Amino acid sequence: MSYLPYALAVWLLVVGLYGVVTSRHLVHLIVCLTVCQSSTYVLLLGVGYRKHATAPIFKGIPLGAKATDPVVQALVLTDVVVSVTVLALLLAVAVQVHKREDTLDPDEIPAVRG
């Protein structure tokens, strides 16, 4: 059992969170959130990995053969779709903030009144 995927997932999360905390630009902030999200892909794939296992296609494979878990692969695919959707939404919000306030610095954006 290798701990490398778990260490990589933690490293990606820490690097992404550091970028979020130190960001002075909305697009940089969104990219750092995407890096945090990518750590979940690595974590899920690390959980579902089996050494010397085949794809989860069982036709023509002898009984008792090792196969990877297809649920984990479906979760990663769902995670990618959710991540792209959130990324598009956040970038659309950043474009609207830039149109309205003419800045992308989070410190220069006035408080939301409504």
Written overview of the protein:
There is one protein chain. Helix content is 65%, strand content 0%. It is an all-alpha fold. It has one domain: Helix Hairpins, CATH 1.10.287. It has three helices and no strands.
Count of DSSP H/I helices: 3
Task: Please count the beta strands (DSSP E, at least 2 residues each).
Answer: 0
Can you tell me the CATH architecture? Orthogonal Bundle
CATH fold title: Helix Hairpins
Structural class of the secondary structure composition?
A: mainly alpha
Dominant shape: elongated
| Succession of helices and strands | HHH
Number of domains: 1
Largest sheet at a glance?
Answer: none
Helix content: 55-70%
How far apart lie the N and C ends? 53 Å
Computed CA radius of gyration, to the nearest angstrom: 20 Å
Q: Any low-confidence stretches, pLDDT <50, length ≥5?
A: none
Which band does the percent of strand residues land in? under 5%
Highest CATH level, the class: Mainly Alpha
Mean of pLDDT: 89
